[in-house]
Amino acid sequence: MIGAERFRRIERFVREYTAGLGGRDFQHMFGRDATRAVEVLTREHSPSEAPQGRFANWLYRARVLFLGLSYRLSPPRRILFAVALILVVPALFIPDEVDGWADPKVVLLISITALVLLLILELADRIVVRDELEVARELQSDLLPKSPPQIEGYEFAFSYRTANTIGGDYFDFLPLADGKLALITGDASGHGIAAGLLMAIANASLKLALELDPTPKAVMTLLNQALYRSGDRRAFMTLFYSVLDPSTGSMEYACSGHPYPILRHRDGSVEELGTGSFPLGIREQIEVSTSQARLEDGDLIVLYTDGIPEAVDDHDRNFGFDRLRRVVAQGGSAKTVHDGVLSLLERFVGETPTHDDRSLVVIKRVKLPPVPGSTPEPGAPPPLPNTLATKD
Predict the structure, then answer these.
(1) pLDDT digits 0-9 by tens, 243-291
(2) How does DSSP classify residue 236?
(3) Which CATH number, 3.60.40.10, 2.60.40.1570, 2.60.200.40, 3.40.50.10320, labels domain 148-365?
(4) pLDDT digits (tens, 9 = 90+) for 8-49
(5) DSSP character for 381?
(6) DSSP secondary structure string, 142-205?
(7) 154 forms bridges with which residues in the sheet?
(8) 54-70 and 75-93 are packed helices; what angle lies between their axes, rounded to 10 degrees?
(9) Contact 383/376 with Cβ under 8 angstroms?
């Protein structure tokens, strides 16, 4: 009984310890992940600086990697790392019988202990940063809609996926005072924390702009000024902004550097909404061009960010706009089109990691059933007579 119980404990521990391990994870760790780590640590040095000759090139790359890793550590940890590596030399190459040296096994143990201590310290810092990023991610998720707006005659489906813990994509459905609905989708430059901060600035500025004047031209102008005055010329944002009148389906919209939304008509034809323009925040003054469109019964519109068409597979091929348009042209409910795009995208990219944030919003106008007692549409058959008799 004791042996069986101990075996079950060991089995449970191994199962928990290896939870989430995929079949190709080791291949990725020693291939893709290792390559990315070397690129990050040595990105200050151009490959063209490497000397000719296999051995000289190897020594150069080893030195660059060592310095790249060392200078990303704090000074005390940097010294600990160097000492741990230096101690490996006598532990491995000095014979036991040489007088004046400690036992090489003890020296090797000290070296390993120093490296493990360094790993513990760095891992503790990473956990703290991860926890802070998780809080930031939760705060950012509060800026995005949790549920679709409840508007009679319209279906909504949407999703959001970040490449990192913090993302720069943004979308929202904001009701206006006159009963109209603001539809917004945008993409902040960069990735990670920088993009997330820019997205938060844009969100706050956008809410203020809607209170002052919700028309597309006014919103785009104010948001452009807010981003431009952030001080960093690398901080810009693409944006599609429209005002939808749910009662008529009419839309007034403007697009600044953002991928054009796709409008699918009920006859299966598709068109793109938008005109060429600079992203917001690049120039102090921009020319905002507005246009009109209309959602008829059975029409749907797809808003998305460039993380979808620019997603790549294992062969570095893009998902592309053509595949996206073909899925949208097939039509269906908002959820059907939304899920169809994501399903094809997931099959296309396979296990390729996500390099950019992905946002997808599908809105469809559906035909409402006639209200009982209302005047029938021209050509509609007359209502059937009531043949039920009532008893006295």
Answers:
(1) 999 999 999 999 999 999 999 999 999 999 987 788 998 888 888 889 9
(2) -
(3) 3.60.40.10
(4) 888 888 888 877 777 677 777 777 777 877 877 887 777 777
(5) P
(6) TTS-SS----TTEEEEEEEE-SSSS--EEEEEEE-TTS-EEEEEEEESSSHHHHHHHHHHHHHH
(7) 365
(8) 140
(9) yes
Closest CA to 304 of 341, 279, 331, 268: 341
Q: Which two tokens stand for residue 203?
A: 């969100």
- Specify the DSSP element, H or E, that contains 16: helix 2-17
Where does residue 179 fall: left (phi above 0), alpha (psi -120 to 50 degrees), or beta otherwise?
A: left
Residues of the chain with CATH 3.60.40.10: 148-365
pTM: 0.74
Long-range contacts of 36-42 (CB under 8 A, 24+ apart): 38/65, 41/65, 41/68, 41/69, 41/72, 42/68
Gap between the Cα atoms of 222 and 281, Å rounded: 10
